[in-house]
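#structure-requests
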Amino acid sequence: MNKTLSIILVICAVALIAYNVTLIDFENPFEGNSVVAIIGVMASLCAIVLILIFYTSKKIQKKLNED
Protein backbone atom coordinates (compact mmCIF):
# COMPACT_ATOMS: atom_id res chain seq x y z
CA MET A 1 0.00 0.00 0.00
CA ASN A 2 1.56 3.25 -1.06
CA LYS A 3 1.34 6.70 0.48
CA THR A 4 -1.35 7.96 -1.90
CA LEU A 5 -3.72 5.11 -1.05
CA SER A 6 -3.12 5.67 2.66
CA ILE A 7 -4.01 9.34 2.33
CA ILE A 8 -7.16 8.54 0.35
CA LEU A 9 -8.29 6.00 2.96
CA VAL A 10 -7.67 8.45 5.81
CA ILE A 11 -9.66 11.14 3.98
CA CYS A 12 -12.54 8.69 3.47
CA ALA A 13 -12.47 7.79 7.16
CA VAL A 14 -12.53 11.47 8.15
CA ALA A 15 -15.48 12.03 5.81
CA LEU A 16 -17.32 9.11 7.46
CA ILE A 17 -16.62 10.62 10.87
CA ALA A 18 -18.02 13.97 9.76
CA TYR A 19 -21.15 12.31 8.36
CA ASN A 20 -21.76 10.16 11.44
CA VAL A 21 -21.32 13.11 13.79
CA THR A 22 -24.22 14.82 12.03
CA LEU A 23 -26.41 11.79 12.77
CA ILE A 24 -25.79 11.81 16.52
CA ASP A 25 -28.59 13.19 18.68
CA PHE A 26 -26.60 14.90 21.42
CA GLU A 27 -29.60 15.06 23.78
CA ASN A 28 -29.97 11.26 23.72
CA PRO A 29 -26.67 9.91 22.38
CA PHE A 30 -27.26 6.30 23.45
CA GLU A 31 -30.71 5.77 21.97
CA GLY A 32 -31.87 4.84 18.48
CA ASN A 33 -29.73 5.70 15.47
CA SER A 34 -27.29 7.69 17.58
CA VAL A 35 -25.74 4.45 18.82
CA VAL A 36 -25.09 3.36 15.24
CA ALA A 37 -23.54 6.74 14.46
CA ILE A 38 -21.28 6.55 17.52
CA ILE A 39 -20.16 3.06 16.49
CA GLY A 40 -19.44 4.42 13.00
CA VAL A 41 -17.31 7.22 14.45
CA MET A 42 -15.37 4.80 16.62
CA ALA A 43 -14.85 2.39 13.71
CA SER A 44 -13.54 5.20 11.52
CA LEU A 45 -11.15 6.33 14.24
CA CYS A 46 -9.88 2.75 14.58
CA ALA A 47 -9.39 2.56 10.81
CA ILE A 48 -7.32 5.75 10.85
CA VAL A 49 -5.13 4.44 13.68
CA LEU A 50 -4.60 1.11 11.89
CA ILE A 51 -3.66 2.83 8.63
CA LEU A 52 -1.17 5.08 10.42
CA ILE A 53 0.36 2.12 12.26
CA PHE A 54 0.69 0.20 8.99
CA TYR A 55 2.26 3.20 7.24
CA THR A 56 4.73 3.69 10.11
CA SER A 57 5.68 0.01 10.11
CA LYS A 58 6.36 0.16 6.36
CA LYS A 59 8.64 3.17 6.90
CA ILE A 60 10.53 1.30 9.64
CA GLN A 61 10.84 -1.81 7.46
CA LYS A 62 12.19 0.29 4.61
CA LYS A 63 14.86 1.85 6.87
CA LEU A 64 15.87 -1.57 8.19
CA ASN A 65 16.22 -2.97 4.67
CA GLU A 66 18.44 -0.04 3.63
CA ASP A 67 21.06 -0.95 6.26
